[in-house]
Amino acid sequence: MYSWMSTTITVEGMTCGHCKQTVEEALREVSGVTDATADREAEQANVDGAADTTALVQAVEDAGYTAHA
Questions:
Q1: pTM for the full predicted model
Q2: 3-class secondary-structure state, position 33
């Protein structure tokens, strides 16, 4: 089990508001995530909750973007 934490991952490829929303929705679907906020200009996403970083990166990549922990 994971403890509650805040995680920031790098997300490349967000070019518009729809991209930002897609990334946030993908991250919120990951088990343990309580909130996710993407910033396309900073190329980052901040995630709150108890989720595995590998699962977060995979969710973003499955949504069509490049992600790094």
A1: 0.92
A2: strand
